[in-house]
Amino acid sequence: MAHEEKKLKLYSYWRSSCSCRIRIALNLKGSFFSILSFLHLLLTTFGYRLLSVAGLEYQYIPVNLLKGEQFSPEFQKLNPIGYVPVLVDGDIVISDSFAIFMYLEEKYPQHPLLPSDLQKKALNFQAANIVCSSIQPLQNLAVLKYIEEKASPDEKIPWAKRHIEKGFEALEKLLKDHAGIYATGDEVFMADLFLAPQVHAGIKRFNVDMAKFPLLSRLNEAYSELPHFQNAMPENQPDSPSAWGTC
């Protein structure tokens, strides 16, 4: 019982890209990341795929946004604005994916997700902020519902695609001279954790034509080979419905 009380708790929604960022971070912050990454590379070389990951242990607590569970008195005590994710670590309650990421980065220094180089660190902050400030808020459930009510249901997808593609264009320009295997070089850092869920949502939810974004398309392929990323994707969450069309 004491172990259960000390375990991290993540309040999450399966399709939330903000929650997905933190699910990836929790996976990566496990002590055995480097060993598993090497093992995954070795196995995939010979045609096998590693599906499990060894990250930080946490309790997944689903919050159904479509049913309005984020507005319940219990959840509002955790986050008055009613957004996921929320991380609970003992007596510490943190909402907002950016704040949670920074908390995990400082508390769990294993496998740093911010580079030591100051310029590269700033680049990661820029890329992450394009996603979490200039793309995701304009395609979230509350905004799309408002557009549906005030304009037309037919306007939701075009609205989202317009802002996603604008952000993707900016990211392509920002990262073109810095990307390696991943967004800011040959190691996984913060920018990748913010990019992967957003690109996934762009493709799966909003039918964005990724042919227009060759760099992001290449990064998306790289992320598809990382079990720590794929384990965190929406379709692999316990509260995910059986098909995208039911949400």
From TrEMBL:
Top-rank taxon: Eukaryota
Catalytic activity as recorded in UniProt: RX + glutathione = an S-substituted glutathione + a halide anion + H(+)
Enzyme Commission designation: 2.5.1.18
Protein name: glutathione transferase
Keywords tagged on the record: Membrane, Transmembrane, Transmembrane helix
Gene Ontology BP term (one): L-phenylalanine catabolic process
Transmembrane segments: 31-51
GST N-terminal domain span: 6-112
Database matches in Pfam families: GST_C_3, GST_N
CDD domains: GST_C_Zeta, GST_N_Zeta
